[in-house]
């Protein structure tokens, strides 16, 4: 045992005296550093792989949700109709997401569009971060969409202001683009402290997103109204709206009335669109007069998907007629009734106050003396205003309105001079529309 201990001691002394060559030391140190770097590299690589796997798992798990929202026009649910909401849910809109910033800080963002054969719907956001939006800063209705060989004009729109009054969401209706129009430019204006400033956003129409139409028919139906005719020309139903178009007067009728002095100014053709026995909701209407005559259109919600039958229920025709009626009246007479164009007008009372003459009349609903004068002792006096409009319904269900006409001046000999009267002519006709 003693010999072994002595042997180990002597070998230890020898080992302590051995010097490691410099070359070997460098090799060993290099090998250690290389192994350390390799471990660090492997750790970083593993972290990257792990991160990619995590992102892949998260994206894969939420892919349907991300794809769902990437196809929707976001933030307009409160001003969308139910039919538009459904189209948006199904990804029928085209996402644009382009912005323009005015010098006064207003940011206009074109969020998206919807297009079919009836119209182009433009969804945009107007935002101003530094102060509330007001009538002097919002984008004006003077806007259009410019395309190849023609512009699309705006017809109507609806917007909603946010609670903090710093943002407005708008849906604007434009004419439907022609088949050859693809590259479009939306131009708009803002009132910047009394100075008009213009902006524009260009976009390309994706025809794959256009929805076409669901029903398109010529109607060629005529409804006779005494000595006049109202023609229902066509129906065009699409995914966003259903439009009925018609004609009240052609060019010859318009010219004849102008020459005869019996001109009419149509205001509304009252009718309903009935689908599967249910009245469709009205969305808007319009009327225009040009060299072709007087045209009208009325818009309703889209037709139901399972359409079984379709009808037009014509109810009436409201217009302003040129007349020339002079009616003698007496300040002492009350409850006197006379007729103009077959419409009853009852004078309830006539009285004077402070050099003014007041005449209280009662007419049926939708009957208005749209141009009336008072002739006092041979002098023609203009109507100043109409006060105290009261509505009543009698036992027969007829609604009447009572108004007071005010004229400056008094006298003994009085005449009402009626030059225009507006009233409704009832029609009550049903037209069946073919759906195939």
TrEMBL record:
<feature type="transmembrane region" description="Helical">
    <location>
        <begin position="45"/>
        <end position="63"/>
    </location>
</feature>
<keyword id="KW-1133">Transmembrane helix</keyword>
<dbReference type="Pfam" id="PF13786">
    <property type="entry name" value="DUF4179"/>
</dbReference>
<keyword id="KW-0812">Transmembrane</keyword>
<keyword id="KW-0472">Membrane</keyword>
<protein>
    <recommendedName>
        <fullName>DUF4179 domain-containing protein</fullName>
    </recommendedName>
</protein>
<dbReference type="InterPro" id="IPR025436">
    <property type="entry name" value="DUF4179"/>
</dbReference>
<feature type="domain" description="DUF4179">
    <location>
        <begin position="46"/>
        <end position="125"/>
    </location>
</feature>
